[in-house]
Amino acid sequence: MHRTKIALIGGGQIGSVLALMATQKELGNIVIVDRPESENNVKGKALDIMTLRPHDGIDVELIGTSNYDDIDDADVVIVTAGIPRKPNMSRDDLLGINIEIIKGVAEEVKVHAPNAFVVVATNPVDAMSYTFQKVSGFPKSRVVGLSGALDTGRFQAFIAMETGLSANDVSCMVMGGHGPTMIPLVRTATVAGIPISELLTQERIDSIMKRTREAGTEIVHLLGNGSAYFSSAASIMEMVEAYLGDKKRVISSSMLCEGEYGVNGYYIGVPCVIGTNGVERIIEADLTDDEKAMFQTNFEAVKATTDNTGL
Fold first, then answer.
1. Please, are residues 128 and 145 in contact by the beta-carbon 8 Å criterion?
2. Which of 103, 153, 165, 171 is the most buried (most CB within 10 A)?
């Protein structure tokens, strides 16, 4: 019987949490890949997780490696390789370094896992997803970026925190590129079907929107060295489980648009249906004129960064 194979490209903080989460969920066998100088580090992490399996009754295999041969025929590839943000850095500041890393990863994945579903989490994520898809030549349905899933989770969490109600009852979405001009869709945000405008003052709603947009930076400053990893890993798991379980989940994700929302040829965060065929379609919601204007402003920023890839 075929067992799902998951390749984690990058064994840093997000990759490590992903390895643990995927193991505990028994999603499949796991390969953690990092640079040769970090090979012992990821081997140690893999061994550490292997030895927790008896405590949870888990039966999957993990290895740490620097050899891409070990990801042969992987079903899922998650790319977290690259340098993280530090205080006073924007996501766009990472472009020059991370683009070369992503190009190299894409070439390797193209050879070793040509049929994989790929989730890119490296920042700036919209431009890095674009780069991976261009270099690998994979169909757009199999290359998706982590953006709105993470941002939506933050939006949900802050609504729950402000109202004092369960996050499970919060329904909302964040669209646009993963950056300071992202669009939390307040108009459609609800708690158990009740619009948040009936539960919170406009001042508190504005505060939630601001904090959602700045949450990544807030975490970077609090950590002092590095960026968010627990919530990032959980968001990626949501996307991977939707793919492996053919769940048809609607998850805001960085996706290559071909006319949707007036965007053509660029990756940006939009509502995506994720199932066994990868991103099966983009849902085009009716936006208000104000929302359209915010989306266009956001897209211009995404476009400028993506154009700097030179691809």
1. yes
2. 153
If you average pLDDT over every residue of the chain, what do you get? 96
Question: 3-class DSSP state for residue 303?
Answer: helix
What is the Cα 287 distance to its own chain's centre?
24
**Whether the bond into 36 is cis, omega within 30 of 0:** no
pLDDT, tens digit, 9 for 90 and up, residues 238-286: 999 999 999 999 999 999 999 999 999 999 999 999 999 999 999 999 9
Judge contact between 120 and 129, C-beta under 8 A: yes
Backbone angles phi and psi of 144, in degrees to 5: -130, 150
Q: Say whether pLDDT at 85 is over 80.
A: no
Rounded distance between C-alpha atoms, residue 121 and residue 251, angstroms: 15
Say whether both 22 and 101 belong to one domain: yes
In angstroms, the CA 73 to CA 70 distance is: 9
Terminal alpha carbon distance of the chain: 41
Tell me the C-alpha to C-alpha distance, in Å, between residue 154 and each of 120, 149, 170, 185, 240: 19, 9, 11, 13, 19
Q: Is 57 exposed, middle or buried (0-12, 13-18, 19+ CB in 10 A)?
A: exposed
CATH of the domain at 42: 3.40.50.720
Same domain, 39 and 15: yes
Please identify every residue annotated as catalytic: 178
Distance of alpha carbon 302 from alpha carbon 269, whole angstroms: 10
**pLDDT tens, position by position, 131-146:** 999 999 999 999 999 9
Cα separation, 103 vs 298, in Å, equals: 25
CA distance 15 to 240: 14
Total number of domains in the chain = 2
Give the span between the Cα atoms of 26 and 13, in whole angstroms.
20
